[in-house]
Amino acid sequence: MSTNVGRAFGFTGDEFTTRLDGQTATFVIRPNDSEIARRARFGLGAVTERDLLSILGSLPLGLAVSWADIDPVLAAVLDTAPSGVVAIDQTTVTRTLRPAIHLDAVYVRDRNWRRGLERVSLFAPDAPRALLLEVSPRDLDAVGRLASRLGVGVVLPDGTIIGSCSRRFVRVSVRRWRVLELLYRRWSAELLRSRRAV
Question: Are 124 and 136 in contact (CB under 8 A)?
Fold first, then answer.
């Protein structure tokens, strides 16, 4: 059985497994090397604070916005943001933060196809999804119908692929950006651990 499900569906990023939203899943990511290097210059890691991400999501990347155009409550949050998140002067604020990783896909492994589809569907707003089945289902037609409706690709134990990973449910949102930041934090920690082990 293939362990590189991402490549089976055409995704070429790094795969790593972690627990997120109460589910253990494998995430296929591509690092944004320029953003990671930019953050390193500021000593900035993952930014996971929801209110800050929400405000940042309303600002254009790299374009100065006048303080006069920003609600005073939001301005107070921006004014106390960590170094490297925004560039501030007396008259404007500019968002400099962008996601440090791209999330290409997410997949879960499960023995039960219904439970697996339910588990991987939690990530519908975040990325295309796949299910790696550890046991062949009795009713392939039922698996195919539900997987197709949910936009989930399924890999059977013999490597057969049913359906495809759909992007139709992926949404740009504060939740998605926070998921990217949480994954960046965990991926960075895993990378650091693996380098120390060598």
Answer: no
Residue 3 in this model has a pLDDT that exceeds 70:
no
Return d(Cα 56, Cα 173) in angstroms, integer: 11
Displacement of CA 78 from its chain's centroid (Å): 24
- Inside any domain, residue 41: no
Phi-psi region of 152 (alpha: psi -120 to 50; beta: other; left: phi over 0): beta
Both 79 and 140 in one domain: the answer is: no
Residue 116 domain-assigned (yes or no): yes
Same structural domain, 109 and 90:
no
Q: Cβ neighbours of residue 137 under 8 Å, at least 6 residues apart?
A: 113, 143, 156
Calculate the CA dihedral of residues 178, 180, 182, 188 and round it to 10 degrees. Answer: -150
Average confidence score pLDDT of the chain: 92
Strand 129-133 to 101-110 pairing: parallel
13 with 63, same domain: the answer is: no
Token pair of 74, please?
């939001």
Q: What does the pLDDT average to over 22-49?
A: 96
User: Which domain, by its residues, includes 141?
Assistant: 5-32+101-187
Q: What is the pLDDT of residues 78-107, one digit of tens each?
A: 999 999 999 999 999 999 999 999 999 999
